[in-house]
Amino acid sequence: MSTATGSCLCGAIRYRVDGPLRPVVACHCSQCRKTTGHHVAATSAPADCVTIEGEPRWYRSSDSAERGFCPTCGSNLFWRRPGHLSIWAGTLDTHPDDLKLASHIFCADKGRYYEIADGLPQAAQDDPALALATRPG
Ligand SMILES: [Zn+2]
Ligand SMILES: [Zn+2]
After folding, report:
1. Nearest ligand to residue 62 Cα
2. Contact 104/92 with Cβ under 8 angstroms?
3. For residue 34, which ligand has an atom nearest its CA?
4. In this predicted structure, what is the pLDDT of residue 12?
């Protein structure tokens, strides 16, 4: 079983993932852009595989989801809904070598100041096949 660790900028929030990480998905929706200042690059793991130390603050950004951030340094770390936790890949300290960016979602909402030119699959909106499946194993 693989283990990954990460934290916010100031270290008040730390986390450990004991289990598989989903390949990284870039989300270009307006909520992700607003909360991070650009777009999000998120991995995810089953919520019961993740141990969080410290007290993230959770902002309810929609009827079904919350975004977690450090109340001290403001780092964006998590997006969650029942049974699912996304983790912003930039907050990882250690992770398996094979964790890679794999796709883009909500491309119809992307910022106009950049292009997506890496050749990876793009979905105009959400795409469960690209975004929500946790890598088996
Ligand atoms: Zn912090
Ligand atoms: Zn998004």
Report:
1. 2
2. no
3. 2
4. 98
Distance 32 CA to ligand 2 centre (A): 4
Res. 135 pLDDT band, cuts 50 70 90: very low
Instruction: Please tell me the CATH code under which domain 3-130 is placed.
Output: 2.170.150.70
Cβ neighbours of 102 (radius 10 Å): 16
Give residue for tokens 């909520």: 31
- Helix-strand-coil split of the chain, %, nearest 5: 15, 40, 45
In angstroms, how far is CA 114 from the centroid of its own chain?
A: 20
Q: b/e map of 25-35 (b: 16 or more CB within 10 Å)?
A: bbbbbebbbeb
The alpha carbon of 117 is separated from its chain's Cα centroid by a whole number of angstroms, namely 21
Show me where the domains of the chain are located: 3-130
